[in-house]
Amino acid sequence: MKKLYTTKKYKSRHNRLCRLLQRRSRPKRRKYIVIVNVDRQKDKMGLVIDAPENCSFVESTNDCACFFNKLRLSESLWIVNRRKFLYVSLSNVKNIDFHAIVTFLSIIDEMKSRGINTRGELPKDLNCRRFLVVFRLLSKMYDENGKKFQNTSKSELMYFEKGEGKLTVSQMEMISNCVEHTCKYLTGGLSSNTSLKSMLKEICGNSIEWSNSHNKKWQLGIMYGNNEVVFTAVDLGKGILDTIYRKHSQLIKEFFFNDDRLTILKNAFNKKYGSNTQEENRGKGLPGIKNCCDDGYIQELLVITNNVRLDFVNPNKSLIFATEKNLFKGTMYRWVLRKECFFNSIDN
Fold it and tell me: Using an 8 Å Cβ cutoff, are 244 and 275 in contact?
């Protein structure tokens, strides 16, 4: 018997089926950036975001922060048929580091969560382009012919969901496997220890618990080098300075002594502040990270957040790199593990 689609019962069912068929017939969207030749017409209209020539987040912090800030502005989007695109050009880049790559991928993931597709150009410099291929910037991207770039084994990326209150079992397993793999890479088979795992869980948990931000993911990048492993953790939330809690008396003291944002960030790592949530277990992660660096569990600890760069190895390089409010909104941790770090954790 033929169904009458004019009746109320079958009309809604028919409309749902039509919408489903329309969705299936649409071309699939790429999950990550597509490498194409950027349209120069968009460049003339100011809609192509050019990366700085020195795109090293450690060496050229201010220029990279300006670049990352432009990527996250709504004015930088190109809208076609109610679909939003972000056009990025890396053609002029001659130097880039792993920390900028991880931050860039985090921003792309943030754009993806907002339904924004990203397209861009590769650097013209062959050495820089080779570095991007080796260290996974292109691992989840597609070329202009629709082919996916190959993965490499010199680095890896891990994603963690924020706002879950604590690390899940799967996340703890990821951290444990990461420590064991790192230990095997540096020592050739020395069994990992619980103190080093606890330190990494402290660093990861410090970002996991904070949920009041638009971006619900944060990223941990691991780069395997010569006799060292470089870690980069990026959280594109509010940043440390916007999540610490200060008493009224502390605010008055900072006003009279003209404490700048760099001093406030140093005090946060020295356990002088709490968290905005004022929970009992909050505000203890930052001092724990600093203690890991002081005890030799990790080396070359560097933190960039809310326009402040805090270098624990070279305090003279710590500075406020921008006067604009929240030019870089978020937090980037950088630390290095070497063979002696494992023996320091065993001795302690």
Answer: yes
Sequence-distant (≥ 6) Cβ neighbours of residue 16 within 8 angstroms: none
With the CA atoms of 272, 278, 284 and 287 taken in that order, what torsion angle do they form, in degrees rounded to the nearest 10? -30
CA distance 331 to 218: 10
Neighbours of 16 (CB within 10 A): 10
Which residue, 194, 271, 181, is CA-closest to 222?
A: 181
Q: Which two tokens stand for residue 117?
A: 């597709």
Could you tell me which of 330, 335, 334 has the C-alpha nearest to residue 241? 330
Highest mean pLDDT among 183-192, 263-272, 281-290, 299-308: 299-308
Cα separation values, 231 from 52, 94, 156, 169, Å: 23, 23, 10, 21
Strands of the chain (E only): list them. Answer: 34-35, 48-50, 54-55, 78-80, 83-89, 95-96, 116-121, 155-161, 217-224, 229-235, 244-245, 274-275, 299-305, 308-311, 319-320, 331-337
Tokens of 49: 């975001």
- Determine the Cα–Cα distance for residues 35 and 117; give it in Å rounded to an integer: 12
Residue 345: what residue type? S
Residues 332 and 127: their CA atoms lie apart, in Å, by: 25
Estimate to the nearest angstrom the gap between the alpha carbon of 223 and the chain centroid: 14
pTM over 0.90: no
Q: Which domains does the chain have, with CATH numbers?
A: 34-134 (3.30.750), 155-347 (3.30.565.10)
Q: Which of 118-127, 143-152, 203-212 has the lowest mean pLDDT?
A: 203-212
> What span, in angstroms and rounded, lies between the C-alpha atoms of 33 and 343?
41
Q: How many CB atoms lie within 10 A of CB 199?
A: 22
> What φ, ψ does residue 245 adopt, rounded to 5°?
-110, 130
Backbone φ/ψ region at 82: left (φ over 0), alpha (ψ -120 to 50), beta: left
Q: What's the rounded Cα separation, in Å, for the pair 347 and 94? A: 43
Neighbours of 226 (CB within 10 A): 4
